[in-house]
Amino acid sequence: MTDSSLLDIAVLTDYLNGDQGARAVVDEAIADEQSVRVSATTILYLWRDRIVDRRTEIRLVALIRFLGQIPVTGEIAREAGSMRFDPVDGVSDDDLTMRAVNVVIARERGIPVRTKAVEWYEAQGCEVISY
Questions:
Q1: pLDDT, tens only, 34-84
Q2: Considering its fold, how many domains does the chain have in total?
Q3: Which of 21, 28, 102, 127 could cross-link with 112 by S-S, CB 3.0 to 4.6 Å?
Q4: Region for 125 from its dihedrals, namely left if φ exceeds 0, alpha if ψ lies in -120 to 50, beta otherwise
Q5: What is the CATH number of the domain that holds 7?
Q6: Dist. CA 61–CA 121, nearest whole Å
Q7: Burial class (CB in 10 A: 0-12, 13-18, 19+), 33
Q8: pTM of the full predicted structure?
Q9: With DSSP H G I counted as helix, E B as strand and the rest as coil, what are the percentages for the chain, rounded to 5?
Q10: Which of 38, 37, 33 is nearest to 2 (CA)?
């Protein structure tokens, strides 16, 4: 098993939408070839904003069982909440909040973020793995 990595929400939404790169990441996690984690904040936003039908809900429930979940502590929330970013075209405030949480977790645990937003995370000092 390779080192752990933290999944950005885009990996999960892309997986649910049939993206082959995201599918490869998830398939490797399910096959236990790599250890992947997701923040509790990402799960919250997935459930709140990205569940469009019962089929998607069932797929997400099954998927979450294979992912390690990282709780968001008060310290993580405080640090992420104090981060300020310039607006990014096409990125909502909620997505910036999730990204802030991921930045804090990635820095704290010394793990890379799997994402398509490579430049953004690298600008925050994170190690990144693109998919």
A1: 789 999 999 999 988 878 889 988 988 988 888 889 999 999 999 999 998
A2: 1
A3: 127
A4: left
A5: 3.40.50.1010
A6: 27
A7: exposed
A8: 0.88
A9: 55, 15, 30
A10: 33
